[in-house]
């Protein structure tokens, strides 16, 4: 009998019952005041006169009017470079011990995003909130005695002057609470291996020694790890070696495109729980099984604003225009994509994280990630978002009985001088490219009226090339690194796409 597991489960159930009754709007108002109060004596706080914002009757409105939007390039050029030179009290009190390296999906050079002690504490507290929310999923007591495989980037952080650098998953894993370490796999020694292939090989070699109950990580890299374990031990599926695996905590990207290929590695269905941990902070997590939407973390160190995602508010590089209107949590609506803007305990202010979200339940502050501002394809007026592209891949999977975990697209002017949407689709199956293109085109015409209009005007047609999925992962390895938080570009500009096509021909 799972005595310890039932004790833990009982504690979680009791704790969660006393944690109900949150008011997200009030929590956000309190978070903004805490952020402004703590940072008012920093160089940034003095420059934008946080003191007067706090004294105003409507701090949220005054804050939005006084402080401009910042993307990474803007805040790095104007403020964060001073941190990397060792200066203190720049955008947050003190000096950060860590910087999260993030090239994300759109560039080769790493961003260096400050991660303060306050942020690490906020991430820990949010992680505990997520654990307590497991009481809503009604897992058996013995689940809470199983080990958790967390597949992120290396926890071997690099020293750089007076701070340590690494991806946020590695920083978080290097700061896990002491009581959690006995549950955490692959363990500290293997997690420090920087080379992705070597780390996964060690995981495969040790897999039979672990009783894994949950997985956590970005879907594409989790899949590759599972495939390696299955291959190494000559298994039919992952449940042959980890029979008690019950939960997968996804994160970083939408799980939908990976669902079919992921499930093919399982012996039976498991519970998928979405999370949203970015380099800038812990944004949201799925707190109940009735929905796959995620609850915004409204009470732990992050203040959110939302800009309606409309073409007229977005520059060509994906950044917001200066006077794009924002709303706070109390004024958001359903059926509207928003650009997510964050202010945090790491000293990010009105920071454009680059993601777009939509609310599924306003009262609960529950959201879904709908795409990236830079992955909004509007070269010829098609206004095609990533969620529509993901839906199209699901349609193709169903129609052609295949699995398509990866894809990328470019609106490209071809030899005839006309614009085409050029798709590369990752699948192991030998499918007819012309048939895929026709089905894809017809689906998007039905799903997106702007796309349909574009197809009658400037967008001449659709071209599809089928390649094996591993080429996408090798591209990531060649351009950035394998594993960790690396995500494939869903949309490329013509210059990048030329590099991509050259890379594909060389494989």
From TrEMBL:
Q: Which residues form the GH3 middle domain?
A: 297-363
Q: Name one GO molecular function term.
A: acid-amino acid ligase activity
> Where is the GH3 C-terminal domain positioned along the sequence?
390-495
Annotated Gene Ontology cellular component terms: cytoplasm
Would you indicate the residue range of the signal peptide?
none
Q: What is this protein called?
A: GH3 auxin-responsive promoter
Q: Which species is listed as the source?
A: Gelidibacter algens
């Amino acid at each position: 009998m799972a005595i310890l597991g039932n004790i833990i489960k009982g504690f979680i159930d009791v704790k969660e019952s006393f944690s109900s009754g949150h008011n997200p709007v009030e929590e956000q108002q309190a978070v903004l005041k805490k952020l402004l109060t703590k940072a008012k004596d920093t160089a940034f706080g003095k420059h934008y006169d946080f003191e007067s914002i706090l004294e105003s009757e409507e701090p949220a409105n005054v804050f939005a009017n006084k402080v401009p939007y910042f993307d990474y390039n803007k805040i790095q050029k104007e403020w964060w470079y001073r941190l990397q030179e060792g200066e203190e009290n720049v955008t947050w009190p003190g000096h950060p011990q860590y910087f999260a390296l993030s090239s994300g999906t759109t560039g080769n050079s790493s961003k260096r995003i400050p991660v303060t002690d306050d942020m690490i504490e906020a991430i820990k507290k949010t992680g505990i909130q997520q654990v307590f929310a497991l009481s809503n999923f009604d897992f058996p007591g013995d689940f809470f005695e199983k080990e958790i495989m967390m597949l992120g980037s290396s926890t071997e952080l690099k020293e750089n002057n007076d701070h340590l650098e690494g991806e946020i998953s590695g920083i978080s894993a290097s700061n896990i609470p002491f009581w959690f370490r006995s549950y955490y796999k692959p363990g500290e020694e293997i997690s420090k291996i920087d080379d992705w292939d070597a780390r996964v090989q060690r995981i495969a070699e040790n897999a039979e020694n672990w009783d894994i109950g949950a997985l956590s990580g970005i879907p594409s890299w989790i899949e590759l790890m599972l495939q390696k374990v299955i291959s190494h031990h000559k298994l039919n599926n992952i449940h042959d070696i980890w029979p008690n695996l019950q939960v997968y905590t996804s994160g970083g990207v939408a799980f939908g495109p990976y669902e079919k290929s992921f499930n093919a590695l399982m012996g039976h269905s498991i519970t998928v729980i979405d999370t949203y941990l970015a380099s800038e902070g812990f944004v949201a997590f799925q707190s109940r099984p009735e929905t796959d939407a995620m609850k915004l973390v409204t009470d732990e160190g992050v203040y959110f604003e939302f800009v309606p995602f409309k073409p007229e508010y977005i520059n060509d590089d994906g950044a917001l225009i200066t006077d794009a209107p924002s709303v706070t949590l109390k004024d958001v609506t359903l059926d509207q994509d928003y650009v997510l803007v964050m202010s945090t305990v790491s000293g990010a202010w009105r920071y454009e994280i680059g993601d777009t979200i939509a609310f599924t339940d306003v009262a609960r502050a529950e959201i879904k990630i709908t795409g990236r501002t830079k992955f909004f394809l509007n070269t010829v007026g098609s206004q095609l978002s990533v969620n529509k592209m993901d839906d199209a891949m699901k349609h193709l999977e169903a129609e052609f009985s295949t699995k398509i975990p990866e894809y990328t697209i470019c609106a490209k002017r071809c030899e005839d001088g006309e614009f085409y949407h050029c798709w590369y689709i990752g699948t192991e199956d030998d499918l007819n490219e012309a048939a895929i293109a026709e089905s894809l085109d017809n689906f998007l015409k039905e799903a997106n009226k702007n796309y349909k209009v574009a197809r009658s005007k400037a967008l001449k047609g659709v071209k599809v090339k089928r390649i094996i999925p591993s080429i996408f992962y090798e591209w990531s390895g060649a351009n950035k690194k394998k594993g960790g938080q690396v995500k494939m570009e869903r949309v490329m500009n013509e210059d990048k796409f030329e590099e991509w096509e050259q890379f594909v021909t060389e494989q």
